[in-house]
Amino acid sequence: MNDWASLGLGSIGGAVFSELLKLVIEEAKKVKAFKPLSKDLVSTMERLFPLTQKIDSMQKELDFGVKELKELRDTIERAGVAVRKFPSVKWYEKSKYTRKIERINEDMLKFCQIDLQLLQHRNQLTLLGLTGNLVNSVDGLSKRMDLLSVHAPVFRDLCSVPKLDKVIVGLDWPLGELKKRLLDNSVVSLVVSAPPGCGKTTLVSRLCDDPDIKGKFKHIFFSVVSSTPNFKVIVQNLLQHNGYEALTFENDSQAELGLRKLLEELKENGPILVVLDDVWRGAESLLQKFQIKLPDYKILVTSRFDFPSFGSSYHLKPLEDEDARSLLIHWASRPSNASPDEYEDLLKKILKRCNGFPIVIEVVGVSLKGQSLNTWKGQVESWSEGERILGNPHPTVLECLQPSFDALETNLKECFSDMGSFLEEQKIRASVIIDMWVELYGKGSSILYMKYLEDLASQNLLKLVPLGRNEHEDGFYNDFLVTQHDILRELAIRQSELTENIERKRLNLEIRENTFPDWCLNTISASLLSISTDDLFSSNWLEMDCPNVEALVLNLSSPDYELPSFIAGMKKLKVLTITNHGFYPARLSNFSCLSSLPNLKRIRLEKVSVTLLDIPRLQLGSLKKLSLVMCSFGEVFYETEEIDVSKALSNLQEIDIDYCYDLDELPYWVSEVVSLKTLSITNCNKLSTLPEDMGNLSKLEMLRLCSCNNLSELPEATERLSNLRFLDISHCLGLRKLPQEIGKLEKLKKIWMRKYSGCKLPDSVTNLENLEVKCDEETGSLWEMLKPNMINLRVHKEETEHNLNWLQTF
């Protein structure tokens, strides 16, 4: 009997991918001898399982003889054989067998990250039907792939329904009514309308998770539209969410055709529900683009407004008194020394202020949770004194939330108000905000400002989402996302709207196409300026006078973007953040306008295309930190011109490069930044080598090289990094050894090497004293063997955690 027969499959030849994988997963879960290794393999296979189901459903379209699918089948076979042999492996074979399992795991990840993209690209035209005359009708749509595009990971959970992680009160009746209407065959389009903060998104998210709705609709997609909708990006997200490589659309007409072809393809497998969340007034034309006449296709919209021409409306009301009371009690239970009558009286006063808005009840309740009776009384009195809300029979949600802002400490008020400078629904790395605060407020370290974020999160004024292990080493906060409800962003912006635009401390400028407001012609006094442009903006800038700007946030969506020349006049500028919200990296030009800025200390570029040599050319002697995220660099140039980097970037202390997929080697000038203290390169899968001259970085204290799978070795010159105290090489699957003389690094006190099994530890590591190591089980065993020969070695063996929150970054 062969190995597959013993797993209950009989012959592998007739089995479909998902059946094979499902049985292998079940067998692997039974294994106890190789934990956490088997757990790691199971996790990878479970992530792969939905893809195999998709492959099975597309047997007619896909060529199962292609190399990638053959290799996938072979890998699943090897996994099946391996898990069957788990119980019989001898102890002395464990190391060899561990490497075999790891190679299987790596091959599966490789299929997800690389092979599947090749397979998608090969079959894309067939799957979307973009052939023959259809290609001509859309001007070769299928062939217009951006040559500078940076391919993001295959796993892009872009249009899934949000997971609800909070208590839901008072929505049972609306849920039943809404479900009844949505399941009505005569209803094709439906709008859920209500004031902000009433729970529209929560209601619709819960509806999509209802068994009857999931049973009716085979495909349910959820897309946030917001006040600045981009139809092309929404369609691109839908394509990638469904496993297709995103197309570059020249215009909305091409995107409409792409949407139609996608929906026609998907409806073959069952009914479709598309949810468009937070649609604003004026978006009627966008809604019309989704109104495609197809059987078993429905659209559900949430909005503060009605759209009579689009479809019927369901009006969600604020919570009734009893439901509002239950929700408040959930968030803030009775103070221990309060009598029932006192507590009831306080509840009534608070609920009167909250006006039935769930978001207000949540924010207020969290602020009172665990507080004393005197604090409750003081809060209610402060809201009542001179507060117009309690005297207003119909307060708006912003009016209801204003006292929560007023109750903040002064420093938190400033920080919360800054949150309005970022886009609605934007997922912001915590490090972006912290970098800005460090320079704007100039007191304390990044640790202090991380605490400010945690304080605001503890009062439900924003959310902190950990992407990894919820730990940070010396101010590295890339592993936290900050999100904020749109009404809380409006509350932040509201604080600046009490003064004229040109006099505001914080100012948001939104440019649609090429239309500027008239006040831009006046001198602007803001210290924090946020400028947002759409995908139709042609970089035809007005000449603006902004002499006091210290932090500039540029949000762009167009494929080509010229930096405004008036930046050169911002002599006080300390922080520049450029974020592209389009689908592919935007080509930046006029980079030279930054070269005359004497106080510029932090630059962050996200999803833009730049030449790495542009950085030292700027001669930014004050620059302290450079962050490059999801950027495209093209070819790395070496010594094409004479630049004294040690003078051009004389104060640069930190370089952070993350998710830059086409970075295969570092430019020469990085090893000449002798002032550098922190070098962080993470999630750069093409990076294969580091400069041998890295040994010149004598001041380097932290070297982080996480998830760089193609990196095979560290240069031997690493031994010359005499000030290095922290080294992180976690998840570098291709790295097999440490530098031979790593033991010369006397100040090295921490090595993180999670998911780094199969490596060799050089003899010199025994010279390291007071060393702390975090690693997986197998590598930990190697270190444990060295304990008798080392002074104060501490080894922390950790199982791999699989936190999929990182998908939210894209």
Automatic annotation (TrEMBL):
UniProt record similarity statement: Belongs to the disease resistance NB-LRR family.
What's the protein name? RPW8 domain-containing protein
Give a Pfam family name.
NB-ARC
What SUPFAM superfamilies is this protein classified in? L domain-like, P-loop containing nucleoside triphosphate hydrolases
Q: Where is the RPW8 domain?
A: 1-150
Q: Which organism is it from?
A: Arabidopsis lyrata subsp. lyrata (Lyre-leaved rock-cress)
**GO biological process terms held by the UniProt record:** defense response
The GO terms this record gives for MF are: ADP binding; ATP binding
List the keywords (alphabetical): ATP-binding, Leucine-rich repeat, Nucleotide-binding, Plant defense, Repeat
Q: Is Translocase set as a keyword in this record? A: no
